[in-house]
């Protein structure tokens, strides 16, 4: 499997740190959901999370771009 470059995944206003945090959080969710259902994952949760990000199934929101009330 080819690994996409981080530069291809994130935009110019996003940091690599945010990419790592977002993918790791989603990977933990995928692993926990599979464990709760009793499924055995063939593909690694991190690979699945990266593919979901590339397919725009979720997005990374930088802390600075969040509105503060």
UniProtKB/TrEMBL annotation:
Reaction equations catalysed: RNA(n) + a ribonucleoside 5'-triphosphate = RNA(n+1) + diphosphate
Transcription as UniProt keyword: yes
E.C. number(s) listed in UniProt: 2.7.7.6
Keyword terms: DNA-directed RNA polymerase, Nucleotidyltransferase, Transcription, Transferase
InterPro entries associated with the record: DNA-dir_RNA_pol_omega, Pol_omega/Rpo6/RPB6, RPB6/omega-like_sf
Cellular component aspect of the GO annotation: DNA-directed RNA polymerase complex
Superkingdom assignment: Bacteria
SMART domains for the chain: RNA_pol_Rpb6 (SM01409)
Enzyme class, first EC level, given as a word: transferase
This protein's record includes keyword rRNA-binding: no
Entry similarity comment: Belongs to the RNA polymerase subunit omega family.
Subunit (UniProt): The RNAP catalytic core consists of 2 alpha, 1 beta, 1 beta' and 1 omega subunit. When a sigma factor is associated with the core the holoenzyme is formed, which can initiate transcription.
Functional description taken from the UniProt entry: Promotes RNA polymerase assembly. Latches the N- and C-terminal regions of the beta' subunit thereby facilitating its interaction with the beta and alpha subunits.
Official protein name in the record: DNA-directed RNA polymerase subunit omega
């Amino acid at each position: 499997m080819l690994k996409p470059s981080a530069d291809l995944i994130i935009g110019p206003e996003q940091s690599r740190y945010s990419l790592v945090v977002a993918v790791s959080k989603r990977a933990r969710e995928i692993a926990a959901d599979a464990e709760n259902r009793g499924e055995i994952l063939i593909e690694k949760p991190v690979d699945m999370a990266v593919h979901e990000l590339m397919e725009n199934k979720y997005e990374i929101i930088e802390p600075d771009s969040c509105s503060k009330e």
